[in-house]
Write the structure tokens for this entry.
Amino acid sequence: MIVYAIQILLLEWGEMNSLSVSSPCDSTLDIDQIIKNLLLAMTKPFQIKEDITYLSISIGIAIYPDYATDVTSLLKSADQAMFYAKEKGRNCVHHFTPAMETSAIERRSLIQDLRFALDKQEFELYYQPIVDLNTNETYKAEALIRWHHPEKGMISPEIFIPLAEDTGLIVDIGNWVFKQAVHQSQQWRKRMHQYFQISINKSPKQFNKENNHHENWLDYMAEKQCPADSITVEITEGVLMDANSIVTEQLLSFRDEGIEIALDDFGTGYSSLAYLRKFDIDYIKIDRQFVQHVETNSDDRALCKAIIVMAHALGIKVIAEGIETTAQKDFLFNSGCDFGQGYLFSKPIPVDQFEKLILYP
């Protein structure tokens, strides 16, 4: 007989709820069957009052006595495995391994440092130009956060953003990014272009905080006399797919106030045309995976053209991400794409370098 612990993370609209299960069984084959049953159950819709919703699940597994000698350590190991499953995507399973303990220690240390990074002014915004393919002008940019850790150096957003989302720190960090972008857009409207616009990414976790901080954003822009079209809010397809009343209220509030919405990484998820109409999306960003092979892959060329035609038919402008070659740019321009973004124009760079790039090309 063996004893196992399963740590389960349920996700609904970006909110996480976890629970633990531990039980004896005869073999790991029994555990595998339990997991299969759980995953199968999660494929079915759930009715909550009048709403039909889909849940996703991340499962971590630890087995006694292989990787634990008591209940507390068994559940802790399962919890660590669960977070590895979560990083792999929705509806994934991961078994605990000893290497995870070292990783978990590093994770806890980084979270501790992240809690004080804002107060210590360790964050900085880099900006990547978004170029008008028709005129080759730059009057848009995407703001991308960077963390200058005092000991570890530059830490990738791919590492610390998920930590910020898991801990809830993303709300305060997101508010800081917003205020920095508002200030910068005002400066660049004076120095570069009267309609300069900065895009900021908004995490699903920010939408799901019931603190009406979107109203605080609107109040802040009014206080600073910053036009609404100075800022574009970038969201992922997952936000639209999981849009509950809180998300819907915020998106419609932005729309009503004149803040534009961009749908990032378009084509990598499952959003429908109905969502594009409902939320009055202003920009679609073609994901880089469709752009990088347009010179050699006929399917990617067809997909890019189809996305552009569809978007324009709906009155939506198109931004192509990940442009690295002149040939990619020319193809997208000839296909009617409105804007381009990528290393062909510039990598994300600090404010001073961005100003030199645009003002003194």
